[in-house]
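User: I want to check something. If I give you two sequences, will you return the structure for each one separately, not as a complex?

Assistant: Yes, each is folded on its own. Here is the first sequence with its structure:
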Amino acid sequence: MNQDFEAAVSRALQELEWSVEEGSAICSKTYFVATGPKIAFAYLMDFGDAEDSVLLTGVYYSEGRNILEPWPVSIPKDATVAQMRGLVALFASRVDARVADSYAGRLMRKRKPT
């Protein structure tokens, strides 16, 4: 995976309200849940030239476990910009849904007036 690919994924996440990170995570997003602000992190995992895609994965701990672990998105290394953006949007929507469905996310929804 080259730096241009990583930068393109990062830019696509930024357009979806994620913030750029320095370090191993490429981006993060803060969620306001019943237990206070919590942060989800996004990572790109490249398994080398033998693989034709990279995994966009996330980490968000709820109830002592990473609830995003089973939800990575595979992005082909030769994806067009439109394809890559669509897959990044899929990842971001999955993260939003999983966080909203977490225990603290459900409690937060119950607190909001109808």
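And separately, the second sequence with its own structure:
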Amino acid sequence: MDILHEYVKLRSEFGRQCLFSDRHVELLVDIPPNPKLASQFVVKETRDLGVQGCGEMSEHEVNTKRFEYDNQGINHVEGGWPKDINHLEMEQTIRFRKKVEKDEIYMNSVMVLGTVIGQCVGQNNAVDIYQEYFKDEDMLDEVQDAPSVKVANVYRDPHHVKRHVTCLSWQPNGGNHLAAAYCYLQTDKAHLGMSQESYIWDIENPTQPHVTLHSTSQLICLDYNPDNMHSIFSGCVNGQIALWDARNGNSPAARTPLVACHTDPVYKIVWLQSSTGMEAFSASTDGQILWWDARQLSEPTDRLVLDLSRKENLDTALGAISLAYDQSTPDTFLAGTEQGAVVCCNRAGKSASEKIVCTYDGHHGPVYAIQRNPFFSQNFLTVGDWGARIWSQDIKETAVMWTRHQAEYLTDGCWSPVRPSVFFTVKMDGVLDIWDILFKQNDPTLTVKVRDEALCSISVHQGGSRLACGSQEGIATLIEIKSGLCTQQHNEQELLAEMLERETKREKVLRAQRGGDDGADGGESGPKALFLRSEHDFHNVMETEQRRKQWESRQRHYP
């Protein structure tokens, strides 16, 4: 066991002072380029990043019209009758009404007031007088509570050498078990006697694991079968895929052979929707996506190489570290790569060119998490480098919404299963951010300091009221979410649909404008032609103005 000490001091309290001076340029090393190494590099597309050195400020003024109000009381009694008419006598009132109705002034007054009354009637017809404004009053009062969370339990790695909690998976159908994969990712400080075990926790018992998963290699990822509460697929550091049955002991029920699995660590595995309910696919940094049948793990049933040149070359393939799959489109999936690109793939394609549909390139570093919105499958969330982005499947050049750059690196994220506008992210400083994009987009709705060390993984229970965060020191923290963040608000789904549609249209308009600016210089509508036309019009206006002034000058001298 290595004992590491860290001493924190001010720079002025230790070491020799750094004295800087000006001097001429000195060539220390000159390494000429090697053309043979060029084929081993993967070309990355150029990305533009705007940097703002100061805080964002805006100024807005509104002048409204001021009205002065005056309250007066009115005593409503029977009135408006002449003194000689007794309003209690029906015969006198009827006789007086007939006399007034025959008067010509009365007829003109009725004609003038008819248009005013018609306008008032029209306004009344435009308003639903039977609308129930407060029918959802109970739900609104509940949602208006301040968003908050509470730490319910803490589950610690029983092994003395603490490892990272790299993946978390909840038991389906509302189960109370939480599966956690433990792996020490810092290979330069790996220990020979490190434990290879991962655990399944009962959330009511944080003292000891419910089931211990013994493996020959550390688990990086795992996933519960949505159709079976006891079946788990996992991916190992050595590239193997293992199938577990929590009811039948601590050893895997089946395991892939080393010659037929990934050659790099398996970072993500996802169950597929199938007639048997026993199929899954995995992603690894070796550049391959492999499909598996749990009934026969001797070899993969299908294979896809993430080579953007469509040549199926593993040397230039992108390493996949995250996957997104939606049951509504069983043949289409998204793969997040360590190069920052998101690859959209179609398993039903017959050739390599048909299987890789397109790419979404917007992150500067690895895409650690990718997930489709549970309510709008055409929009998906990606988490990487210093921010989270929301994409539309129709726009490949840029995201439709994104968070501002955070001070710390983001490591994982996911959508809320019950609220379409809420998603969660975790960061290297141990902070959990909860975002509600209907409430505000630039800053999180709630920020919680969960641990002092970095958070590596996050998973939300299908009920939406609980989530688990895994840390770098092998601690899984169970957090309870208050009702304001796990209860869908009134018209929330419709409002988010309008927002996403509006942002998608805006990006399409901007893309069309950028495409027009980048077009050819020739033609009547090209940028060069428009510039020349504007310059020509300017000179014509100047010449006309000069001739007019010269004519006026002659008129003054020679009247």
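Because they were folded independently, the notes below concern the second chain alone. Residues 527-557 form the longest helix (31 residues). The chain has a mean pLDDT of 83.
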